[in-house]
Design goal:
The protein has 17 helices and two strands. The protein is mainly α. The protein has a single domain, classed as MFS general substrate transporter like domains (Growth Hormone, Chain: A, Up-down Bundle). A two-stranded antiparallel ribbon has the order 1-2. The longest helix is centred in the N-terminal third of the chain and has 30 residues. The two termini are 37 Å apart.
């Protein structure tokens, strides 16, 4: 059984990803508030997710080059600096003409950060990488658990969402000071060639299946993050502040799921654990969707988050496993699936909510869970077939 060794560098990587999680999970409850603030439809407000999708694509394209050119440590810290600048701009500027492009720009920084983090953990921990990646995502969701609560508090207090989001600046500042004081430095890493006229091996069919799995389940997570609060307001009569705080239940479930899942991943086969997570998500959605009692709906969100917790960590770990000699490129290409998740999931769900109501629109979620299960079954077959191994001949980039 693999053993996970957590040194200072590993803890720093966890905290850096946690800072990004603070923004990502905190921004979800802000989107409905931006809709109300700008007096636009849910579909128009959902364009923030489209902007984040575009940012994911750009970030995935440039991440390998930046990691190779500047090293993982410098690229990750520079990305966090970009996140700080964008958060300040979010708070200072008003109007969709500012918030939409800012959503894309901050996601570029986030994707570079995620790519460096995942590749670094995969290289540093070897066979225990699935557990390390899961724990890093637990740190992200742990930070994300706090963000909606803080934003909900500032909204309920009448100060709006901006002071809550600005608290991230202090979080990143403290993290940088602690790393400097204890002299914890991230290794540059041995990265592969980024985009350019170089020759490299294809990632392969098994990687493609894992990639699609990330896109499908990522759409569920992104859609819930943006529009679950809307359903709680419309169907269950919760206030805007209370609904924003209720989203913390999803993140709490994801934190618990990843905390426990990191240990289970050292003992249980990844695909079996992934299928169990899908079943848990389906059960949580059934509770959330069928009830009209706020407390029960929040409990359903908690269970839903518990299942969602392992979707991304297992899928990205499997993607890196089937592309063992190209960790940075595999992690960067995976960001394109995140771009589709950010773009398609919330946008389709928001448009469907405008047409048929938010409650019926959420029936998209069980369909996506079924699709993810079918993809996982196909991936299991592909991983035991020789065709799952990438061809030995190099091909043009």
């Amino acid at each position: 059984m693999p053993h996970l060794l957590r040194d200072r560098v590993t803890w720093l990587i966890y905290a850096q990803l946690g800072a990004w999680g603070y923004f990502l999970y905190g921004f979800g409850p802000i989107v409905p508030l931006l809709r109300d603030e700008n007096q636009v439809s849910s579909a128009v407000a959902g364009l923030h997710s489209t902007a984040m999708a575009a940012g994911s694509m750009i970030g995935g394209a440039i991440a390998p080059y930046l990691l190779r050119r500047f090293g993982r440590g410098h690229a990750i810290w520079a990305s966090l600096g970009g996140v700080v600048a964008c958060v300040v701009a979010f708070a200072a500027l008003h109007g969709l003409e500012y918030t939409l492009p800012l959503a894309g720009i901050i996601t570029i920084f986030g994707i570079v950060l995620i790519t460096g983090v995942v590749a670094a953990l995969n290289e540093r921990h070897g066979a225990a990488a699935p557990a390390a990646i899961t724990e890093a995502n637990a740190a992200a969701t742990g930070a994300g658990l706090i963000a909606p609560f803080v934003i909900g508090l500032t909204v309920s207090a009448g100060a709006g969402w901006r002071p809550g989001l600005l608290s991230l600046v202090a979080v990143i500042g403290v993290l940088a000071l602690v790393a400097f004081a204890f002299r914890v430095r991230l290794p540059a890493g041995e990265v592969v060639a980024g985009p350019g006229p170089r020759r490299r091996r294809p990632l392969g069919r098994a990687y493609q299946l894992a990639w699609i799995m990330m896109a499908v389940t990522g759409s569920i997570e992104a859609g819930l993050s943006l529009w679950a609060a809307d359903l709680l307001r419309d169907r269950d009569g919760m206030s805007a502040g209370a609904a924003a705080q209720a989203i913390s239940a999803i993140v709490a479930g994801m934190f618990l799921g990843r905390f426990v899942g990191a240990r289970l991943s050292l003992r249980i086969a990844p695909l079996r654990l992934y299928l169990a997570a899908l079943i848990t998500s389906a059960a949580g959605f059934a509770v959330f969707w069928t009830t009209m009692t706020p407390a029960v709906a929040v409990a359903g969100l908690l269970l839903l988050g518990l299942g969602n917790a392992m979707h991304y960590p297992i899928a990205i770990a499997l993607a890196l496993r089937v592309a063992p000699d190209q960790p940075d490129r595999a992690a960067a290409v995976a960001s394109y699936s995140m771009g589709i998740s950010f773009g398609a999931g919330p946008l389709v769900l928001g448009a469907a909510a405008d047409l048929i109501g938010v409650r019926l629109a959420f029936l998209i979620v069980p369909l996506l869970l079924i699709a993810a299960g079918a993809l996982a079954w196909r991936l299991g077959r592909a991983m035991v077939q020789p065709a799952a191994v990438p061809a030995l001949e190099p091909q043009p980039a």
